[in-house]
Design a protein that fits this description.
By secondary structure, the protein is an alpha+beta fold. About 35% of the residues lie in helices and about 15% in strands. The protein has 2 domains: about 140 residues, no CATH class; about 70 residues, no CATH class. It binds cobalamin and iron/sulfur cluster (2 copies).
């Protein structure tokens, strides 16, 4: 069974491949004989039906999505020479978004999340695989929808204006959510992200959005 098929069994996709330089590999503590880095992630809520039925999700212990991602990556790598790398290991964190910019047609949106011309803001990375060579060419896609989006509704939807030219004000967002239990974000997920008109068919399900928001708040000191 090929890699894409194996990943598909968990609702995951081979998203793109970046090539590391030997110096980069060394700076991250990787061996220099595997310089091809395949990014693996979800498109829309693709992994949710798998993850939400998993022992990690149902067990109730901390960090279920990270533990699920680790188990799936280890299964995929078993009996191969592939080495998994995780976005949640850190700090310091591996620069997944910089790698993603090299592996796929992406541009940073005003929210910080990478905009994909087809998937919009509705994608993320569960792990990456280091290998000798992955045979996957990134497709040339249309330019980022952000470039022609004049109104930028994403920047106007947050009740506390947590996004501006300085980036994402994490304290303003988390502070508001912690003191306002009736805020719509608790039920619907981040209103700024949902205000983006690109790829509405891939909007995360309410259950997935609630999961991410709770994980974000639970991780706060
Ligand atoms: C720390 C972190 C956070 C912190 C701080 C974010 C910040 N202010 O930068 C917190 C906990 C607040 C956070 C929140 C979220 N995050 Co976050 N986060 C990370 C993490 C683990 C490390 C980022 C980092 O420091 N990298 C190290 C530097 C060296 O790498 P880098 O690639 O150069 O860094 C880039 C980012 O910092 C980015 N950036 C700058 N400002 C912002 C703001 C936001 C909101 C984001 C998402 C990115 C971003 O620009 C840099 C250049 O490309 C990454 C995973 C990773 N390993 O990259 C996920 C990651 C960036 N997060 C991600 C996401 C989706 C989120 C959320 C939107 C929620 C979610 N899980 O769905 C939330 C937003 C909260 C909300 N209100 O909904 C995704 C982004 C996917 C994408 N399509 O781009 C990542 C890649 C995780 C993943 N598994 O895919 N996150
Ligand atoms: S609302 Fe417009 S500017 Fe904001 S993320 Fe979506 S396309 Fe980009
Ligand atoms: S979750 Fe709500 S408060 Fe936080 S940035 Fe998004 S819209 Fe703003």
């Amino acid at each position: 069974m090929n890699l894409s098929h194996k990943l598909g069994e968990h609702g995951l996709y081979l998203r793109g491949v970046a090539r590391l330089t030997p110096a980069e590999a060394e700076s991250h503590g990787f061996a220099t004989d595997k310089l091809s880095l395949a990014l693996v992630g979800n498109i829309g809520s693709s992994y949710w039906p798998h993850f939400s039925q998993s022992e990690e999700f149902r067990g109730g212990a901390a960090h279920p999505l990270d533990r699920w991602s680790r188990r799936v990556a280890q299964m995929i790598c078993a009996d191969t020479s592939l080495q998994p790398v995780y976005p949640f290991e850190g700090p310091p964190y591996y620069p997944f978004q910089q790698w993603a910019l090299r592996a796929e047609t992406l541009l940073q949106s005003p929210l910080g999340i990478m905009m994909h011309p087809e998937y919009g803001l509705w994608h993320s990375y569960r792990f990456a695989l280091l290998g000798d060579e992955f045979d996957l060419q990134s497709r040339a896609l249309a330019e980022s929808p952000c470039l022609s989006c004049e109104v930028k509704p994403c920047l106007q939807a947050c009740p506390v204006m947590a996004f501006d030219t300085n980036g994402y004000d994490v304290e303003a967002c988390a502070g508001y959510l912690q003191r306002t239990s009736e805020a719509d974000c608790h039920d619907q997920g981040c209103l700024a992200r949902y205000a983006c008109p690109v790829a509405p068919e891939l909007n995360y399900t309410a259950a997935q959005s609630q999961f991410h928001l709770s994980a974000f708040l639970n991780a706060r000191p």
